[in-house]
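Practice record 12: protein with iron/sulfur cluster.
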Amino acid sequence: MIDSNEIIEQVRNAGVVGAGGAGFPAHIKLNNKCDVVIANFAECEPLLFTNQALVMAKVDEVLEGLQLAMKATGAKMGIIALKKKYSDCKRVLSDKLKDYDNMEIFELGDFYPAGDEHVIVREVLGRKIPMAGIPLDVGAVVHNVETLYNIKKAYSDKLPVTEKFVTVGGAVKYPLVLNVPVGMKFSELLDLAGGPTAKDFILIDGGPMMGKEVGLDDVVTKTTSALLVVPINTLPYSSRRIKIDVQLKRARTACCQCRICTDLCPRYLLGHKLEPHKIMRAISFGLMDAESLINSLLCSECGLCEVTCPMGLSPRNINASLKKMLFEKKVRFNKTLVETERPEREIRKFSAKKLLVRLGLSDYYRHIDYTDKKIKAKEVKLLLKQHAGSPAIPVVKVGDKVNKNDVVAKIQEGQLGANIHASIDGTVVKIDETSIVVKSE
Ligand code: SF4
Ligand code: SF4
């Protein structure tokens, strides 16, 4: 008999966090009651094959993880939401589903951002999450498929999160999907993929739309879904390098109020009060008060407005900075029910293919399968904060010998966070405010 508290405890101990997003600790999500668990297998960021490779290689573990998540939350139904175009994955999943009760598959269209929690819940269940709300508000919990895999490993195998499935793609010689130690340097990942093929490039941790620019010395975390190499002038990274006060000045002078950003905004189309063109207008009139800007708090920062603005402006970057400013002023958007969805939503969904063209990354699109190879790292840098919440507190000191899977940093008492574990055998050679470095013998 499986005990739901035991699942939650094991998942907490193992440091499982959302593998496909902001790294929200999984034990917190599991410690809620809901009627359905959605396995988020949209993988809607262009060039990513991480989840597809994982499902092809570890389908049993993913489904067992879904079963455990259903058990912990008391959900009567588990739904695997994948894009219709992942036909091989669908076949593999369908073959296995007969061994599981109350699970089914839902096919999503090939649009961006199909994996946004508000969007996926609307697509799969037809339920509208309130503005500023979460899936639980409508009886659902959403977990990425790799998070479910880690839940299975935590509960059934008593193994913590020390490895990460990662796509190494874009402008590289040999694009790969690998399972690598958390804390491994990106430069080593790049070497495994044969190095970059572009002369002037940037590295992205994650997808091209919502990932972040990183350096060769940065490292894999529990939320690294990909390491992408893209040309230096790729949107949206070129616009992110422009200082925010310059972006605000440009918004004041260049926004022509065409409202394309609003017409394509996935949150606006769901019926939310977010209308980015109005925020741009408020800024151009110098209206910087909370009342004029509060709807920016509804922005998911998906970046669609940024890649479609004909004037090269970035409502996303502006919303992100306004959100920060409002947050510091303790301004919050109260949870509000969504009344009606925009009737044009269906025809305004932005196709993934078109997005790839907009980003100028079509040449790098190649299907990538999983390379089942043991990857070793000589040294790992384990970040103390690779999850939502507070940084973990080190429980080791310099000179300590650690084995793979040993806990090296723990959640602060009473705080939101996640434990961190050694991803290789070795010696702790450095500890600072942000990380623990372990070197193999
Ligand atoms: S798409 Fe660009 S120019 Fe058009 S309203 Fe939005 S920010 Fe302004
Ligand atoms: S980033 Fe732009 S398109 Fe995406 S939710 Fe925010 S305003 Fe809408």
